[in-house]
Amino acid sequence: MSIPLMKKVISLGQLLLETGNSEDISRDSSSNSGFSFAFKRFGLDVNLTATQPWAWIAIVVVTLWWGAGGNMIIYVAALNAVPKEQMEAAQLDGAGNVARFFKIILPNIRSQILFTTVMTTISQFNIYGQPLMLTGGGPNNSTKVLMMYIQQNAFGTGISTAGMSAAMAVLLGLIIMVFSGIQFVMNRRSNA
Question: Which residues cross the membrane (predicted)?
Fold first, then answer.
């Protein structure tokens, strides 16, 4: 993970976790994050990182924030590469916006959609920082993801089950290879 991506995840995570400075919020409450403070202003008592389903919603929001930028760059580049001649010809032939989208734009950016879908799916298997930073795997281990489980088994307190962790990591690698193979085959078919 690069430094700019880490900054995005950390800053949004801290906004979810940061204690509010207002005096009217009780100090013994664990729901003093920046967003929880805003919810309290509207009369909603929401603890974003300590209760379900809010803990998962917070993780999903941070993860979307983390990954959306790279995908958007790919989509903008793909949309700019759509041949203008095809768009103009379709418009002259009387095709509407919906028809141009499904008949011209979508077929031209299909490989980029496939690429971003597969890469996003692969990256979701490797999520570690967001749940660790936001919830620590809680409440009651409900947000403990696969990478946290592998790390805890290998290096956690107590008896080390490094062999089992290594086997889980190898299986995860094989699953990621399957997704990469699917992308490779589908990309080759679309280019043929």
Answer: 54-78, 154-179
Q: Answer whether 44's CB lies under 8 Å from 50's CB.
A: no
Q: What is residue 42's predicted lDDT score, i.e. its pLDDT?
A: 81
Q: Is the pLDDT of residue 29 over 50?
A: no
pTM of this structure: 0.70
Whose CA is closest to 118, among 60, 181, 168, 190? 181
38 CB neighbour count, 10 Å cutoff: 12
Computed on alpha carbons and rounded to an integer, the radius of gyration of the chain in Å comes to 22
For the chain, which domains are there? 35-191 (1.10.3720.10)
Q: What is d(CA 90, CA 100) in angstroms, rounded to the nearest whole number?
A: 7
